[in-house]
């Protein structure tokens, strides 16, 4: 790069911008240990199936549920830690002031998209948690285990999207305040 080309310094590994981001990062670090738990229960299944010829009925669904849950939460973690996808070819080539406007557009579009997804996921979660007559009835997998994992995942998707909407609002407020104060956010 030449000295004429603006360049942003590399972002720190995790750059939380507010209390919510810090809480998400802290909780995510704790929950990441569940990946190891998933490996252990999968190893247990392999041992039971191939050494003792006694396969389990719960490991596959449980491992899938834990992994799916962690991947759902990975989205809000990536945004909180400032590790979301960004087109750096464009972002790094523009001035600091232009980056602020790109961030503003990003947060506005992201807020609209996350809001629509949260609205849609509400109806899916509601159908998974309640019978048409209003009684609490968790949707189950329909397998031998018949665990309520589908309902729990749909509820988690809704909660994660609501958190994402709040994150976008908080980041948008920070961007607007930064533009008004001419600060780098």
TrEMBL record:
It comes from the Bacteria. The chain crosses the membrane at residues 30-52, 58-80, 101-122, 151-173. It holds the Pfam family DctQ. Residues 39-169 form the Tripartite ATP-independent periplasmic transporters DctQ component domain. Its main location: membrane. Keywords: Cell inner membrane, Cell membrane, Membrane, Transmembrane, Transmembrane helix, Transport. It is found in: Cell inner membrane. It is a multi-pass membrane protein. InterPro entries: DctQ, TRAP_DctQ. Belongs to the TRAP transporter small permease family. The complex comprises the extracytoplasmic solute receptor protein and the two transmembrane proteins. Part of the tripartite ATP-independent periplasmic (TRAP) transport system. This is TRAP transporter small permease protein. It comes from Salinivibrio siamensis.
